[in-house]
Write a structure and sequence with these properties.
Layout lengths: L1 H4 L16 H5 L16 E6 L4 E3 L5 E2 L4 E12 L2 E9 L6 E7 L4 E6 L1 E3 L17 H9 L1 H33 L2 H33 L10 H9 L8 H14 L15 H10 L5 H4 L7 H13 L3 H19 L1 H8 L20
Antiparallel strand pairs: 1-4, 2-3, 2-8, 4-5, 5-6, 6-7
């Protein structure tokens, strides 16, 4: 590796071979960033987790084989074997944990920041075959009586386990006697289940896209089907009624703001027609009082009582017609907005000539 990396190194013009090498000439270490704490006796290495642990900072599980950039330093000796300690940071939080070697037990020991996951059990409790220890094997080789006793114990143990072993063998033969048929059955069930999952995934995807949702749907049940059949989503109005209401609202709404009181809506003509069909405004509705002089009122009453001549009756009708025209004019509308009272005064002569008010 060193020879291959050194082929493309650049040697500056002022390089002096007497210095001892390019790294010494440039004042750098061959390990670069890994040796930034070498003056403190710390070297950065790639450390692999030897077993499963639990981080004390975030309480998360860290599996065996996860790799970290660890600070390696020597903390002691076990006879002639050095003891190293590794410090690293958890990749899930800001907690640091330290692990050191244990040459005496051929193991690693957690110093701080984490705890080991214990998965230990007695193999004899679950029927596993336990290998003999070195002392037992030595006694079996040297002591004939101990070998005979050990063999007798194994025979007794096999007699006790024979019924259980027979049941396991019989179950295995019934299930896996025809390997091809068993394999076909498993694959058949798997294909059926896979098609069901694919169909449900397509249906759920269409429903989520239609509803603009991004959630995980639970499988449909019979209770959900019954509840959905009882619900009926019906609009309160039909499409034609909704469109008609919208058109009416647009036609009756003002298009431009108006301060003069004129009709400026999109449906101005239709609104004028509806207003013309409505009941006409009268003086009593508007609250208008018409004042006349006492003499004119007296003359009118006397003429009405006596019957008068035809000219007087025509003059009376003409006066009332003029009064109605004045009420409906723009001047009277402006006066109504200012809450003023219209005063109409009419003078009538003995010759029957009417004076305009």
């Amino acid at each position: 590796m060193g020879e291959r990396k050194g082929q493309n190194l650049y040697y500056p013009p002022d390089y002096d071979p007497k210095v001892g090498g390019l790294n010494k000439f440039q004042g750098t270490h061959a390990l670069r960033e890994r040796a930034r704490k070498l003056h403190m006796g710390i070297l950065i290495i790639r450390f692999e987790m030897p077993y499963n642990i639990w981080c004390d900072g975030c309480k998360n599980h860290i599996g065996m084989g996860v790799r970290y950039n660890a600070e390696k330093k020597k903390i002691g000796m076990y006879y002639s074997t050095p003891v190293y300690q590794f410090r690293m940071k958890c990749h899930l939080c800001d907690n640091h944990f330290e692990i050191k070697t244990d040459p005496g037990n051929l193991d690693y020991v957690i110093v701080s920041g984490a705890r080991r996951q214990e998965n230990r059990w007695d193999p004899t409790e679950n029927g596993q075959i336990v290998p003999e220890t070195k002392e037992t094997q030595k006694r079996l080789f040297d002591d004939a009586m101990f070998k005979l006793e050990h063999k007798t114990g194994d025979v007794d143990l096999s007699k006790l386990d024979k019924p259980r072993l027979g049941k396991l063998v019989g179950r295995n033969e019934t299930v896996w006697k025809d390997d091809y048929e068993a394999n076909c059955s498993l694959r058949r069930n798997f294909r059926k289940r896979r098609k069901e999952l694919e169909e449900s995934a397509i249906t759920d995807g269409l429903l989520l896209n239609k509803s603009s949702l991004d959630i995980n749907l639970l499988p449909e049940s019979e209770e959900d089907r019954n509840l959905a059949s009882l619900l009926a989503l019906r609009p309160s109005r039909s499409i034609e009624e909704s469109h008609k209401n919208v058109r009416t609202k647009i036609l009756n709404s003002p298009a431009l703001p108006s301060s003069s009181g004129l009709i400026t809506s999109f449906g101005g003509l239709k609104k004028e027609e509806s207003l013309s069909k409505s009941s006409s405004l009268t003086r009593n509705i508007l609250g208008i009082t018409v004042k006349r002089n006492k003499e004119s009122t007296r003359d009118l009453c006397s003429l009405d009582k006596k019957g008068g001549d035809e000219n007087c009756k025509e003059e009376i009708k003409l006066i009332e017609k003029c009064n109605n025209k004045v009420i409906n004019s723009d001047k009277s509308t402006e006066m109504l907005k200012e809450n003023r009272t219209i005063s109409l005064v009419g003078d009538y002569g003995s010759s029957g000539e009417s004076s305009e008010g």
